[in-house]
Design a protein that fits this description.
With about 450 residues, the chain is an all-alpha fold. About 70% of the residues lie in helices and about 0% in strands. The protein has helices at about 5-20, 30-35, 45-50, 60-70, 75-100, 110-120, 125-130, 135-155, 160-170, 180-190, 195-215, 220-230, 235-255, 270-285, 295-310, 325, 330-340, 345-370, 375-385, 390-400, 405-415, 420-430.
């Protein structure tokens, strides 16, 4: 890599830090109280140790514990999240360079552009600026590092590092249990034969089976999966996850109305349209695989980490932007390859600047939404005005800030939209009892818990 490319990488990292600077002093948000502020196992070594074998995501909790012991203020948590994001940016750049060379995309600029798109894309803000979004960013860091270690295994390296990193990724987020399929996809994209893959991959399948058996022995894992899947048939869940995937893909392609709690009820009737779009995209990727393999890779990776993943492990909230953190980085690579493959040289720099500058500004704006609980849910309420939970969450933010009249109005609005909504009823009772500032908050935190 030339000096100019090193300077470009350094400039990219500085631009990323600048874009996220306004998020570093943001407060704890709603789920943060459940899993950090009011969660004793991340406040002491003994608490964390005693929670092993009972709760889920032990390595994620260990990262929270480290932050808490250094300082319970939010700056350290945000700084850690940002450092993780910067490390993931470097891994995206490294893996993109491997694939670009394989596909005949010459030079260093396409991998750098892919890393820049990933680094500055505003849809990734939720995985970085929202402290609980760490489960997505940290697990992605470990999985991509495992892929890089797996790549070196083909050159005679030991599989131990890759196996360890895969196990650590699962210990951060259980959905990364699909890592054997991820490595299988990576190996095939890299041109490795099935026979060679089976020869080198058997330890990963054995590890995956062992981790699955262990997870099934932990009551909280089983309870969380059963709760998420309750009331959904396989076909119904397929329709929901397909809607969610294409909704999120639309957010990635046009990130002008990012929403932490989208109202997807109106999308249900569009399932046949979505399925037709997906089949058409699959056909085009297959038809042009030899000329533009990057689009096929992006689609296969997205289907694995967005659709297949959540068919097996359904989510209560089916569309969170942080789900795209791992699922969509090959989209950035596909755009960068198309930029290098299609455009004349004199058009590349202005097009890249035209793409990245709005991303930077939108990212700064989106990070600003996380500056307070009230700001976040005010913005969300403008985008999901007919969703009861959003108004309940906004009312809860007002209640914590001592704005009781505003809180009452939002709780009443939530009950108008969804009569008998239990959390709004409970928050109104709390408001009437004058217990608006009294911890703990865990029993009334409006969002469904991400970790237990």
């Amino acid at each position: 890599m030339t000096v100019s490319h090193r300077q470009t990488v350094a400039l990219l990292l500085l631009a990323t830090v600048a874009a996220y600077a306004n998020s570093l002093f943001g407060p704890f948000q709603f789920d943060d109280f459940n899993v950090i502020v009011d969660f004793e196992p991340v406040h002491s070594w003994s608490g964390w140790w005693n929670n092993l074998g009972h709760g889920i995501r032990p390595l994620l909790k260990l990262s929270y514990l480290g932050n808490w012991l250094l300082s319970p203020m939010t700056f350290g948590f945000h700084l850690f999240n940002l450092l993780v994001h910067l490390a993931v940016v470097l891994l995206v750049w490294r893996l993109a360079a491997l694939l670009c060379r394989q596909w005949g995309i010459e030079g260093e600029w396409a991998p750098l552009l892919a890393a820049a798109i990933f680094a500055l894309h505003p849809v990734n803000s939720e995985a970085v600026s929202y402290i609980c979004g760490r489960s997505s960013s940290l697990s992605t860091l470990l999985l991509l590092a495992a892929i890089l270690a797996f790549e070196r295994q083909h050159d005679g390296g030991s599989p131990l590092w890759s196996l360890l990193l895969c196990a650590m990724a699962v210990a951060v987020k259980e959905s990364l249990l699909l890592f054997p399929l991820t490595l299988l996809l990576w190996g095939r994209i890299r041109g490795t034969s099935w026979r060679q893959l089976l020869r080198v991959q058997w330890p990963f399948w054995l590890l995956g089976l062992s981790l699955t058996i262990w997870m099934l022995s932990v009551p909280n894992y089983v309870a969380a999966a059963e709760h998420a899947a309750s009331g959904r048939s396989m076909l119904g869940n397929l329709a929901l996850q397909l809607q969610a995937m294409l909704y999120l893909l639309g957010q990635w392609c046009w990130p002008l109305a990012l929403n932490i709690d989208p109202d997807l009820r109106g999308l249900a009737t569009a399932s046949p349209i979505y399925l037709s779009m997906l089949l058409a995209a699959a056909f085009l990727c297959w038809r042009h695989w030899h000329r533009r393999p990057w689009w096929g890779f992006a689609l296969l990776w997205l289907l694995l980490h967005q659709l297949l993943l959540y068919l097996q492990l359904p989510r209560i909230d089916i569309a969170n932007e942080r789900q795209l953190y791992l699922a969509a980085w090959p989209m950035a690579l596909a755009l960068a390859c198309e930029w290098r493959y299609t455009l004349a040289e004199n058009w590349r720099r202005p097009i890249a600047a035209t793409l990245l500058m709005p991303m930077f500004l939108l990212l700064v704006q989106r990070n600003g939404d996380f500056r307070s609980e009230i700001a976040l849910w005010q913005q969300t309420a403008t985008l999901s005005p007919d969703k009861a939970r959003v108004h309940n969450n906004l009312g809860f933010a007002y209640m914590l800030d001592g704005q009781d009249a505003m809180a009452r109005a939002e709780f009443m609005r939530a009950l108008q939209l969804q009569p008998g909504f239990g959390k709004a009823v409970g928050n109104l009772r709390r408001l009437d009892a004058g217990r608006t500032r009294e911890p703990p908050f865990a029993d009334i935190v409006p969002l469904d818990k991400e970790e237990q």
